[in-house]
Each structure stands twice: as C-alpha cells, then as structure tokens.
# Entry
Amino acid sequence: MAVIKVKNLNFCYANDKVALENVNCEISEGEFVAIIGTNGSGKSTLAKHFNALLIPTEGKVFVDNLDTAIAENLWQIRSKVGMVFQNPDNEIIAAIVEDDVAFGLENLGIEPAEIRRRVDLSLDSVGMLNYKNFSPTKLSGGQKQRIAIAGTIAMQTKIIVFDEPTAMLDPQGRREVMRLIKKLHAQGLTIILITHFMDEAAQAEKIFIMSQGKILKSGTPQEIFSDIVQIKNLGLDVPAPVELADRLRRKGYKISKNILTAEDLAAELKGGN
Ligand code: ADP
# Structure
C-alpha cells in the first residue's frame, strides 16, 4: 500500500523559481527509498512536501490518503512523518540529552511517565542510553545525530525522512547513522533518505534520481547504477565497487552485473575469476 502519493506536483518558491515540475511518485509502506541528485535538483523541496512543511503550488501530495494541502490534516500528517535534517546542532535544543529527546513529546502534552518510557526506549534503540544525562555538546557529530534521530523515534512516526543526515559526519559517524537507518527499516518503518553518498543510496530498496525539479528515473539500486554513463552525465557518481567492477570488466574479467557493495565484489572475485 502506498503511504505517500505524489500526483502532478509543481512547486514554486516565493521568488517564482520553479523547484519541482510535474513530479509523480509513490512510496509503499515499509519501503526504503533513497533520493539522489545534484545540488538544487529539488530533493529537499520534495521531501518537505512529505510532512506538509511545504504545500504544492499545483498537484497533490497524500500521506496515508490525507491531502497535505488541507490544514485540518496537518496534525495527523506530522504524527505519521518525522524529519531528520543535516545538522544535528540545529536540531538539538536542550542542555541534557534526555531533555532533548523528550522535547517533542512534552509539546504533545504526553504524560511524564510515558515520556520517560519513550525517551529510554528511543535512546536505547540508537545505542545512546548511557549518555542520557550528558550534555550534547560533549558528543561526537555521529552521536549528536543519533540523539536527534532518537527524538524523532520517540514521536513514533511510521515514516522518517532523512535529509542528508550524514553530510556533516566523519566516516565513523556516517556508518553509525546508516546502521541505525537500516535497523529502523528492518523494524518496519518507511524510510526516505536524501543523500549524496552513493554507497548509502545503494543500501536502499529503491532510488529516485532527481534532476532539475523532476524525477528523472526510479528503480532498484542495481537498475539505477547499471547505467554508469547516464549517472556520470548527470554529475553524479556510482558507488566505488560499481566503478571498480566496471573497470575490471573492461579489462576482461568476468564480473556479474549485480555488484553494488564491496562484499558483492569480494564474493565475485573469490568465486574464481
Ligand atoms: P536539493 O535538495 O536537491 O539541493 P532544493 O530542493 O534545496 O534542492 O532546491 C531546489 C531549487 O529550489 C533550487 O534551485 C534552489 O535554489 C531553490 N530553493 C530552495 N530553497 C529555496 C528557498 N527557500 N527560496 C527560494 N528558492 C529556493
């Protein structure tokens, strides 16, 4: 079942700049979709339509069949779709980790005992329970982002949109956040991940490529990264193992077309080529 439906969506910012042009897509319950595209291609603008931060200039966006343009639906939509942004420093407000995770719940007027229960559960699920009394300023970038994600998990939304959540993190922080995203997906959440790291996009079930305000192509990571020339012409990269497999193929090695990860390539090479 589609939890997000986008129909003939056009969006212009106040300066009349057309940011989205006739976008159509559907995201199914429990799906993990990555959105890739060069800077300014419209990824964030599209994502902000998924929880009614932006409302279509023309066309429709539905979340669980709720029209995002109808003001009375806003509360329900926000209780279904959480957002995590690039810079955890902009998202973390409180001086103590547990207060920060509790912040959104307090705003909803939830009982203190239930807040404590959800805060502990969320911190545990991001592996940060031991840090609940810490000051966020003492944490690494990856840990801060996990705290921001705990705040979103605590809201118990069934969809989480991640807008370049690893862009400001070191490789260790990136790995921590990607592990967490995959765990949330495995638990049944619908995940939408905007990223400019192709190895992260390769971990999704489906990829949308955006270019100049349009979804140019959608498909499985295998389908998307099979056309290396097209990806490069769009100013994007392919995951490093895909590139390496391609070079080996051109040198005469027999390498299957389905290589996405280093593990795939290692297994293929071990297979006796
Ligand atoms: P991406 O996330 O792919 O980098 P964006 O959705 O941020 O792309 O931007 C799409 C287009 O909309 C770009 O041309 C960008 O300059 C423009 N844009 C983004 N935010 C605003 C804004 N607040 N006001 C005006 N134009 C904007």
